[in-house]
Amino acid sequence: MFMRCFLPLLFLVQSGCVFSQSADTLGRPSVAALVGGGMLVGYGFAALKWQPLVSFDHTVREKVWMDNPHRRLPVDDYLQYSPALAVYVLNAAGVNGRHDLRDRTIIYVMANAVLGAGVLGLKHVISAERPDGSGDDGFPSGHSATAFAAAEFLRQEYKDRSVWYGIAGYTAAVGTSFFRVYNDKHWFSEVVAGAGIGFLAAKAAYWVWPVVERKVIGKKREKFVE
Length: 226
Hints:
Number of helices: 9
Strand content: under 5%
Radius of gyration: 18 Å
């Protein structure tokens, strides 16, 4: 039951963005991306108060943690960065992506700046207690946000080569979310919200990149040439 509840999360993001190869290639928002990411974030917010979703969070935790006590596995601490790391490893191996080293790094930093502001701001405002009682900064999951931003980063850089790069990245992102719940650090709804925030943050970075490149990077290049 626990693992099955993550399948819709993977399907929603994969079907909404991994298999739409042309909707977001021109630096403008796509409806599928906005709807998909918005649904994930909306689910998380709804679960803060709506009793059926609150009950589902507790049911998932009961099946995972209470009924099956186990040792925590810190896989999520490393898995969250794996899609982004793959971008640089692939490039170092001679498999070139969509942007050069400098440009892709700026985009990735932009995405993390957006998700960092969103995640930290919400954690401070909402103050949701973690399921294991270790803190009141549970909503949303920062690990999930980081992982999903990294997954979209990998997909954007290598989607013109193969759809499987995106699939691999999002599988790692869902795995990160899985282990956050498995380790009793987050409610299911918190990782869903984090996934949506990370996904939208990466999308936003690619949507605004053409403007940044033209108006900021381009001007610096012109000044250097002069």
